[in-house]
Amino acid sequence: MRRTRDLEEISVNNSLSVVFSSFNGEKTLRTMLDGFCRLHPPEASWQLIAVDNASTDSTRSILDAYQDRLPLVIIEENKKGKNNALNKAIDYVVGDLVVFTDDDVVPNENWLIRLQASAKAHEDYDLFGGQILPRWPVVPMPWLMSDLPLGMLYAITDPRWETGEIDVGNIWGPNMAVRKKIFDMGLRFSTGVGPDGSETYMMGSEGDFTRRLGKMDMKAWFCRDAIVEHLIRPNQMTQEWVLNRFFRHGRSSYKYDHLRDSATPRLFGVERWLYRKIVDSLVNIQYQRLRGDVNAVFKAKAAYYHLKGQLYQAKREKAVSV
Known about the structure:
Blueprint: E1 16-22, H1 26-37, E2 46-52, H2 59-65, E3 72-76, H3 82-90, E4 97-100, E5 105-107, H4 111-121, E6 127-135, H5 150-154, E7 164-166, E8 176-179, H6 180-184, H7 207-215, E9 220-231, H8 239-256, E10 266-267, E11 270-271, H9 272-291, H10 294-321
Parallel strand pairs: 1-2, 1-4, 2-3, 6-9
Antiparallel strand pairs: 4-8, 5-9, 6-8, 7-9, 10-11
Helix pairs in contact: 8-10, 9-10
């Protein structure tokens, strides 16, 4: 493992650590780090922990180029998986607040100040988040904006959310802060979920973590003024990418959204209702094609891919249980 900066050089009095992981992030990393260079610093000193997660592109050299411009600590995690990387970074955090983000965001200049102020003002809360806005590379096509769940697709927060208490499940990875005492209790991110370099990974990198916090009666606070922009790449605006996203979310839904029921009749070890829904979904796609409504056709296809993801996860869990 390599570090560009010995942690002894960073004051133990730091009140805030920012953590992100990058796997082959060269397309967005410079824009992201330039944004961090423009940040207004929080009250006390802070550090930025970057985890190079087995990248094979220029990620490492880009990170190295910012050593003199940011309070940057670079570590390496060669086992692929975002949550593997985040868990490794937790061993290096200092201060009372750990802020998590991604390698494809641009923070507002006051982002860290707002999160830190929220944490100081609301001592009864242990989880904090803020707005996540899209930065589109081009104007989105109508099919993409036709009532598709942009929160699920791009982690864009609902513009109607106001500052105040919020469900822990509505704190998302690009803009999430956690009190360090949570990790001192031994909690870590689940490594069987989240980006891992594959096309079929199960979504929910931080969702499993926040679910566990919710079960522990931890409370979350939303700060509308703590803003990051999520950099949407052109390939992420294609129908293929969106459908794959629905597939991955379907996997997560089957695992976490109480869809499993041991008492439900099964076929080949999988709930029969799931096969029935898939058939109904295919029929709906054909129906929408006959109607000639292009947007409705795509929404029907998205629902089908979501069900395919559920079926994929159901079969995986059956295989593990055998």
